[in-house]
Amino acid sequence: MTRLRCILLAVAVLVATGLPAHATLTLCNRTSYVLEAATSALGGGVAEVKGWTRIAPGDCVAARPESLRGRAWFVHARSSIAHGGPARAWGGKHFFCVRNGNFALKWPAGKSTCPVDGDFPLGFASIDTKGRFNWTTTLDESPPLPTLQAAQLAGVKRLLRDNGYKVGPLDGKPDKATGAALADFRKKFAPEADNAKLIAVLEKRARLHAGPAGLTVCNDGKLPLRVALGKAGHSKKVARGWWTVTPDACAQLQTVPLGTDVVYLLARTRKGETVLSGPHGFCITDTAFEIQYEQARCSDRGYRQAGFAKFEAHGSSGVVLHLGGSAMQRPVQAEMLK
């Protein structure tokens, strides 16, 4: 079998092998991370991009249950926000537009910008399916884990660590510390769960304790939100927007550690109803924007001013901000991550 390898962010490796199965593109996760994957099919000058497919460590999922012949195929995967530390990504040099939350996009290929507000480009790795009806691509980390079973155990270890437990090395091998931690977690939160349910519960609870470095906004409500980010320092201001965050989804507004950063946020529904705001003024527009300026009035530059809420990182590497509740009254919960 031929193999395809593509490395991104020094940790991502794709290994593709053909398997005799019904027509489908299958993705296997041989890493210690819970992954979310987006796939793109390119044919006839049209790109069809779908995501996000959740793949637990050690699991294989049919991402595109359709014939693979006649089109070029691509994949991008990213680690779940439940995992602490820098976010991991698996991809390549082919850019397609995606959005946060479950999506299916269809648009002409070759566009330099994403046509819809809230969509953004990510680098995808190409998959050579050898013209077959079906293909399986395995996502590895570096150094690679030997088997899917080892990846499942390493994934449980990583999620236990994200939940605050002390475990052994993330090498896919059992150890006493991991056994004790797993027994305690099962007793408290998942006494009768099978492996798949256990990983789901571990991931859900890890979101309350850990998260990626930088700034992440999660939408726990029922309406899509548009979020803008502001930063100020040395008499200069910068404001960026809009990120579209669909219900039950999260968006990373900043991926580098916050440290002592102070950030400012504005969140609205698509109809313009304010969900999160504050007394700190920044310039905005209704469409996608990045505005850098000093102390000039927004109206003098053709912009409008809006009030942003202030959040301080207090030395934390990451902040996860949850917007939830009813459509117009969403309580804000910020999690500071060391």
What does this structure look like?
This protein is mainly beta. The protein is built from 3 helices and 22 strands. Strands 3, 4, 6, 7, 8, 9 and 10 form a 7-stranded antiparallel sheet that branches. Strands 13, 14, 16, 17, 18, 19 and 20 form a 7-stranded antiparallel sheet that branches. It has a 4-stranded mixed sheet with strand order 1-11-2-5. A hairpin with an 8-residue loop joins strand 21 and strand 22. Helix 1 runs parallel beside helix 3. The radius of gyration is 21 Å and the shape is globular. The termini are far apart.
In short:
The protein is mainly beta. Helix content is about 10%, strand content about 40%.
